[in-house]
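@channel sequence for tomorrow's demo:
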Amino acid sequence: MIILSFGIFLFFLTGTCYGNMIQCKDETGNNVDWFVMYKIPKIAESANPVIRKGVAYMFMTNNTVNDGWQLSKRDISSVDSIPGKTLESLYNDKVAEKLAWLVYNDQPPNTNSSHSKYGHAKGVIMTNENQGFWLIHSVPSFPSMPRTGTEKKKKNNTKEIIQDCENKKKNTTDDLPIGEYSYPNSGKVYGQSFLCISINSSEINFIANQLIYNQIITYKHNIPDKLKEKFTSLLNVTTRPKIKRPPYNNKGVFESTEGVKFTSFAKTDKWQKDLYDDFVAPQLQVDMLAETWLNGRGKLPSECNGTQVLNVQSIILNSANVEFKSSRDHSKWAVAMKNIKNKSWICIGDINRADTQFNRGGGTVCLNSLNLWKNYRDSVNDVESCPRKKTGFIKSIKKWFSKTIG
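structure tokens (generated this afternoon):
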């Protein structure tokens, strides 16, 4: 009887720990409803050695957001970092093989290839029968490859085989160890953004459907047989299905484990518009400041017609005593320009403001939170002003004539 009782006790104990394990984590390993992170760029002139190495990060959780940005003393490449703690289950083989999860990135780890025909999207989704998390980030070649799960099947054609061989010949500093948490060297140079949301398993199929719009590249996944019927959309997204009929964009609301509402915006390559100017800002009915990658081709200027979307040009993070230009930042986030009528939105996601992104899937996830909004809004140091309106030749002559004669 004693042995039986002890066995039942262990069953409930391990079941509770097992359930609690699959959520977003803070630095102590405790469950949090959500967190945001800002990986600081590598700044050689900083007095902080962690910032100089390019592995420093700031964070806020739902429990600490009132205190603002906190500079971590930990290295983002450490297993004791916030993403290291959150992704711990992914690299525990005995745990990971029992969970449903997928890791996606248009620039997968341990390869020099990128998938420009698919979505510009990076993240992790993981769940058990009851709860899990969705981690959205901007880091190429992250996270490192888990040992368990199913790898993406490669097409057996000559062109792809040749390309794979060429990629393997290239010397890359981003080869990460398989089966353990790690952070790529390329991700240290620039700033990066993270958003993690703890979710009930009932939200998984909605999120998976959004990822279909995002046209994600899943480089490894695991869906146990006992969970396939429950998470049909999650299984479907691994096959890279396409949205064949309009609408080619989709918006929806889902909730965290504590009932906080998040709004997800997703688009396919067929939508052919700017995510922020043509979708997010009009739907949220706010002017926005967008911090996205400015170093690529086809950068869009600040948009000042209708709902405005202005490009952020520099960032200041007072808690870390750093200031940097957006050209040193690979983050993808947007914040409401003003807090009007309790619309204090902050969005973190995948897509850049560039016309080259019209041909890519991707999205963003938004939260209406005054304290979170204030911290992101205060980090905006400078923005690109509205472009001057071009006046026609006749109007220019009339304007000159009126000034000269009158």
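heads up for whoever presents: The chain is about 25% helix and 25% strand.
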